[in-house]
Specification:
This protein is an alpha/beta fold and 410 residues long. It has two domains: 143 residues, Aspartate Aminotransferase, domain 1 (Alpha-Beta Complex); 238 residues, Aspartate Aminotransferase, domain 2. The protein is 36% helix and 15% strand. It has an eight-stranded mixed β-sheet. Strands 11-15-14 form a three-stranded antiparallel β-sheet. Helix 1 runs parallel beside helix 12 and helix 4 packs across helix 8. The model has no long low-confidence stretch (mean pLDDT 96). The chain binds pyridoxal-5'-phosphate. The site of pyridoxal-5'-phosphate has 13 residues, from helix 4.
Length: 410
């Protein structure tokens, strides 16, 4: 008989060495601790509509409930046919050509599909271009898949559009794919068609796959219009990601989709890999798939929230006004999504560690935000504010931020 090992240490896998997701990181732990002590924390850190009193359209809730009895079994690993058919139609309307039912994968939120799409593609050392700032799941998922995230800068002085020179300069022989997040989290930028055309041209020239995260495509303000990257790139392999979490306010259902378009004949092996990963997780949550068809086909109540007088629009306006009134704070007015990404002028606020800053803000003012470096922004001079709370709560929160920052000024 062999000897028993007595004291085994369990350490995390080396695969996680460069995997970082600060939105739910160490600062959140401190917030939980403070809550356990009995403090009430104003949480403007997560883009989750439901806790802020946003409700899902009634008809999609009814669809899920009505179909619950028939949603007990596993389904096809790509998802239910009526839901995938609705997704196909949606992309036809958005001008994406050649999408077939077999090109649609339903997932437990966009999050699962992002990880699957990168795991299926990347070998160790393959590079993926990701915007800075980004939604950090993209960077984390590239690292987890053995790839190397390479960040291209978005330019705050140009409405946070991608800096195309920087993007072009960062393409190498190892670059496999280029990620676009539009409308953008955390900046709220919505890219004009011409900017997207130039990004597509770079992907075309260098043989890159395009990954377009369009989860906020219906949350648009003012005159912003959304163009699907894939609509401009019929000759480039595109994976477009979207879902129900934001526009239909059911983030907890975990319901999203991925659509493949472009020259699929050159991606047969990759898509086979994606099929393997989809099969390994059997299928996405079936009850939530029943929400997709009526969500996409029904009355788009999100429009009432983003048009003038709509709740999301008013909150975006008020948050932006209040933030830009703080001395030394500037902010590009968000054209989409549910965030503001203000800049703290380093001459006024000499911040060295922005995680420390949000931790101090939490402890002093019981307000929880996420630091800009949590979105892979390279300088400690930005914060992300979620614009989901009602106006009075935003006023309270940004008032606390202003008071706190007074103590940080030079
Ligand atoms: N992509 C972006 C840009 C996001 O902001 C989020 C959530 O905040 C996600 C993806 C994840 O969405 P899901 O709930 O579909 O997993």
């Amino acid at each position: 008989a062999g000897a028993y090992r007595t004291s085994m240490e369990f350490t995390q896998s080396a695969k996680l060495a460069n995997v970082c997701y600060d939105i739910r990181g160490p600062v959140l732990k401190e917030a939980k601790r403070l809550e356990e002590e009995g403090h009430r924390i104003l949480k403007l850190n997560i883009g989750n509509p439901a806790p802020f009193g946003f409700e899902a359209p009634e008809e999609i809730l009814q669809d899920v409930v009505r179909n619950l009895p028939t949603a007990q079994g596993y389904c096809d690993s790509k998802g239910l046919l009526p839901a995938r058919r609705a997704v196909v139609q949606y992309y036809q309307q958005k001008g994406v050509s050649g999408v077939d039912i077999e090109d649609v994968y339903l997932g437990n939120g966009v999050s699962e599909l992002i990880v699957m799409a990168l795991q299926a593609l990347l070998d160790d050392g393959d590079e993926v271009l990701i915007p800075a700032p980004d939604y950090p799941l993209w960077t984390a998922a590239v690292s987890l898949s053995g790839g190397t995230p390479v960040h291209y800068l978005c330019d705050e002085r140009s409405d946070w559009y991608p800096d195309l020179d920087d993007l072009a300069a960062k393409i190498t022989d190892r670059t496999k794919a280029l990620v676009v997040i539009n409308p953008n989290n955390p900046t709220g930028a919505v890219y004009p068609r011409e900017v997207l055309e130039r990004i597509v041209e770079l992907a075309r020239q260098h043989g890159l796959a395009l990954f377009s995260d369009e989860i906020y495509d219906k949350i648009l303000y003012d005159d912003a219009e959304h163009t699907s990257t894939a609509a401009l790139a019929p000759d480039v392999l595109c994976l477009t990601f979207n879902g129900l979490s934001k526009a239909y306010r059911v983030a907890g259902f975990r319901s999203g989709w991925l659509v493949v378009s472009g020259p699929k004949q050159h991606a047969a092996s990759y898509l086979e890999g994606l099929d393997i990963l989809a099969s390994m997780r059997l299928c996405a949550n079936v009850p939530a798939q029943h929400a997709i068809q009526s969500a996409l086909g029904g009355y788009q109540s999100i429009n009432d929230l983003v048009l003038p007088g709509g709740r999301l629009r008013e909150q975006r306006d008020r948050a932006w006004e209040l933030l830009t009134e703080i001395p030394g704070v500037s902010c590009v007015k968000p054209k989409g999504a549910i965030y503001a990404f203000p800049r703290l002028d380093p001459k006024v606020y000499p911040i060295r560690d922005d995680q420390r800053l949000v931790l101090d803000l939490l402890v002093q003012e019981k307000l929880l935000l996420v630091q800009g470096t949590g979105f892979n922004w390279p300088h400690p001079d930005h914060l992300r504010v979620v614009t989901l709370p009602r106006v009075d709560e935003l006023e309270d929160a940004i008032g606390r931020l202003a008071r706190f920052l007074t103590g940080y000024r030079q």
